[in-house]
Specification:
Blueprint lengths: L3 E4 L3 E4 L2 E8 L2 E10 L7 E7 L2 H10 L13 E4 L3 E6 L2 E7 L4 H4 L4 E5 L1 E7 L2 E7 L10 E4 L27 H10 L1 E2 L14 H9 L13 E5 H7 L4
Parallel strand pairs: 8-13
Antiparallel strand pairs: 1-2, 3-4, 4-5, 6-7, 7-10, 8-9, 10-11, 11-12, 12-14
Length: about 240
């Protein structure tokens, strides 16, 4: 029996090797096995050998973990094969609110002042935090919760039908940011304090609709994370 996977229209990947992972508590090791195929029978594994660093490097390259060299602009804060993080200065932005209720219709499609923001893409997930100062953050900079619906306590954004770029690269970051603010804020996501404003989320944005003053930073809620912790946890608690 032949075992293969078809990805796209022009490539066929055949099963050649298998990695078995053994674990006990926090200790683990892996073995690499050749796969043999027999006519009209299931494939079987040959005797294993220890996994080498050379194999892991080849595997990582084949899976696309190798990243082409990029010149990182000042607003990019971190870049790994798994994530990219950047910050955006405080500015006025359009906001859209969904569900059609009267209180949201009054806010929909207007300009609002926003704080400086920190964005992170991990895999295909988008995260956001707010910054108390309009300058590039350091590793130990305390972060604030982004004052937006559709965002949970970890800063994870519910993408929904948001039209985000196909690629994750330095050149696509503005596209991810634009896609976020072109989408509608429709609902709170779990138990998270989005703002310290006495009238809550809608009260905050009602007070800022069409205004030209800076975002009132005293209404940002503490995320209890530094930039370093945010990057390390990557959306985990």
């Amino acid at each position: 029996m032949n075992a293969h996977v078809r990805i796209g229209d022009n490539r066929i990947f055949s099963l050649k090797q298998a990695v078995l992972l053994y674990q006990e508590g926090s200790r683990a090791f892996a073995t690499l096995h050749e796969v043999k195929c027999r006519r009209h029978e299931a494939p079987y594994l040959c005797a294993g050998q220890s996994v080498t660093m050379g194999f892991l490097e080849t595997l990582a390259a084949g899976l696309g973990a190798n990243i082409a060299a990029e010149v990182l602009p000042d607003h990019v804060l971190a870049r790994t094969p798994e994530l990219i993080a950047w910050w955006s200065r405080a500015q006025r932005r359009l906001m859209f609110f969904g569900d059609g209720s009267a209180d949201r219709k009054k806010l929909n499609g207007k300009m609002y002042p926003h704080p400086a923001l920190l964005f992170m893409i991990h895999g295909r997930e988008l995260f956001v935090r707010a910054l108390a100062n309009d300058c590039r953050p350091a590793a130990d900079t305390p972060l604030k919760n982004a004052p937006y619906w559709n965002t949970d306590a970890h800063g994870r954004i519910c993408l929904g039908s948001m039209r985000v770029p196909e690629e994750v690269s330095v050149g696509s970051l503005s596209g991810w940011e634009k896609a976020y603010f072109a989408s509608e804020f429709t609902h709170p996501s779990g138990a998270v304090r989005l703002t310290t404003h006495p009238a809550g989320f809608l009260g905050l944005w009602s007070s800022l609709a069409g205004r030209k003053q800076n975002f009132p930073l005293n209404f940002l809620a503490d995320s209890k994370q530094t930039l370093q912790e945010f990057l390390e946890r990557r959306g985990e608690g």
